[in-house]
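HUMAN: Mind making up another protein with tokenized structure?

ASSISTANT:
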Amino acid sequence: MLGPGSRTLRTAWRGLPGISERRMTDMAYCSESDLLQMIPQAELAELTAESGEIPDSQVVTEAIQRAGGEIDAYLGARYRLPLSPVPDQVKGLAVDLALYHLYARRSVVPPVRRQRYEAAVTFLRQVAAGLAVLEGEGVLVSERERVASEFVGAPRIFTRTSQRDW
């Protein structure tokens, strides 16, 4: 139990944007039409629909949300979320991540999709570590907003002055 003379360390997380502040349905970093620019509609339908020629929009939306969650997990440490406007760089990362998740759903991930996914995650890790930055008007979270530490405790009883004669 902490007494009146004990010191405590209080850490406050201020302004740290996280996924909890952004509902996944509020804003996506890419859309189904962005995915269709990378793969044909028939292929997207094979990846999402059980028996169809038309892509299942719900499955596509889930993959896009999952990609957005991954992006937010990395970028949340350095940028205010959600990113608005969405940089083209982030849109490309979201497309690569979403397509990887759609292929992984069928357990058949082409090597090029795996490489693009791994490259996207590597870049996001570099951004989170401060080794890379996003292009455009992203709002960086300052170091001061991330963590503020403060020591709180009772005034000192034994000081250099009071202990001088000892």
In short: Helices lie at 32-36, 41-48, 57-75, 88-105, 111-129, 143-146. The chain has six helices and two strands. The first helix runs from residue 32 to 36.
